[in-house]
Design brief:
alpha+beta; Dihydrodipicolinate Reductase, domain 2; 2 domains; three-stranded antiparallel beta sheet; about 40% helix; globular; binds NADP nicotinamide-adenine-dinucleotide phosphate
């Protein structure tokens, strides 16, 4: 497991709870400081100890062996199990690391991390080519819609010969929650703080507020539809003056934006509309932007961290196929990773 944050720790706990009902074994956990590696598999007591220690602020380097992620992976690959799988639950640019793990270590890959699939096209091509050349599999259900079966549904439609023309909707649980909170009169800074405390935001909440995270999801979906154009430029809700701050300084400065967002939400409300951060994906385009939508519409009715994905396809041309539900949360995201892990071909 690469990464041992909110999602990684939830995943470790869920794997332990499955116990002997699963053929998976959790053998190694890696963070930025080092790794813990037990080739025979970590037992539930050891996992619980590591989860608690990491949640309390200790690093894996201090709990196990200090090493960079590259060195850790090389070591683990050299002593790896029969059918190694790497679950990327970081939020980092791990594309090269993953390509190497597939090529040299013959790891299957399961990603909650969007960045390796949402970078420059050439980097994504390199990663997918490395996976294919090694005869391995890459699965990425948790990258879009957290635990919702968005990728599985899309893959199913494509595999059955349907032609997906476009996917529209709201793909950020965090922005859905924050914009919904504005609608009910809460301050932006207050809503962001709550979303962060609940583990719904990216490690740096500006990744959500900038629209970058939503744009990555739009790009991942569009690429599945054959799009090979430039990554979309998302509409950034964070003013330029606050983009260079540290995370802590940014959170402290956030109340400065409350007034402008309140005004924007009130302006929309006077027109019977609400603010939503919407994405679009098609074979020819990918986009992510803040939009006013009618209050009385499927997007206007979204609540909490709900995501919505409307698929227009040859078989669903007018009334779209819709997937809707909570689109954030470490436990749900971990469950989607676990579903992918269980679905890997037996080696
Ligand atoms: N939370 C959600 O609701 C949600 C929903 C859908 C998808 N996701 C995705 O799931 C991923 C994890 O989210 P999270 O909330 O668990 O993040 P998080 O709590 O910040 O945890 C990230 C973990 O990754 C580790 N890490 C970062 N770069 C690394 C590297 N190069 N090599 C090894 N480890 C590295 C960090 O190490 P240190 O501990 O040493 O810093 C940390 O343990 C993200 O990509 C996110 O977009 C999250």
């Amino acid at each position: 497991m690469l990464g041992f944050g909110g999602v990684g720790r939830a995943l470790a706990a869920q794997m332990c709870a499955l116990g002997r009902r699963s053929r998976l074994r959790l053998c190694a956990i890696v963070d930025r400081s080092g790794y813990v590696f037990v080739p025979a598999g970590l037992g539930p007591r050891e996992v619980a100890r590591l989860v608690n220690a990491k949640a309390a602020g200790q690093s894996l380097g201090s709990l196990g062996t200090a090493a960079t992620p590259d060195v850790a992976l090389d070591f683990i690959a050299a002593h790896a199990a029969q059918a190694p799988v790497l679950a990327d639950v970081t939020a980092d640019e791990t594309g090269l690391l993953l390509a190497r793990a597939a090529a040299r270590g013959r790891f299957d890959l399961v990603l909650a991390n969007k960045k390796p699939l949402a970078g420059p096209q050439r980097a994504v091509d390199t990663l997918l080519a490395a996976v294919a050349a090694a005869g391995r599999t890459l699965r990425c259900e948790a990258t879009v819609g957290a635990g919702l079966p968005v990728i599985a549904s899309l893959d199913g439609l494509i595999a059955s010969g349907d032609r997906v023309r476009s996917i529209d909707g709201c793909a950020s649980g965090t922005l859905a929650f924050v914009l919904g909170a504005l609608e009910s009169g809460r301050a932006l800074s207050d809503a962001v703080r709550e979303a962060r405390e609940r583990g719904w935001t990216e490690p740096d909440p500006r990744d959500d507020l900038s629209g970058r995270d939503a744009a990555r999801k739009a790009l991942i979906l569009a690429r599945k539809l054959g799009y090979r154009g430039a990554p979309p430029r998302a509409e950034d809700l964070v003013p330029r003056s606050m983009r260079g701050l540290s995370v802590a300084a940014f959170l402290q400065a956030l109340p400065r934006l409350d007034g402008a967002f309140r005004a924007r939400a009130e302006q929309a409300a006077r027109r019977g509309r609400v603010l939503r951060y919407v994405i679009h994906a098609s074979p020819r385009a990918a986009s992510a932007r803040l939009a006013e939508v009618p209050k009385d519409s499927p997007l206007g009715h979204l609540r909490g961290t709900d995501n919505l994905f409307a698929f227009r396809t040859r078989h669903y041309p007018d009334a779209p196929l819709v997937i809707q539900g909570p689109g954030a949360g470490p436990a749900r995201t971990a469950a989607a990773v676990l579903t992918d892990l269980q679905a890997l071909p037996a080696r």
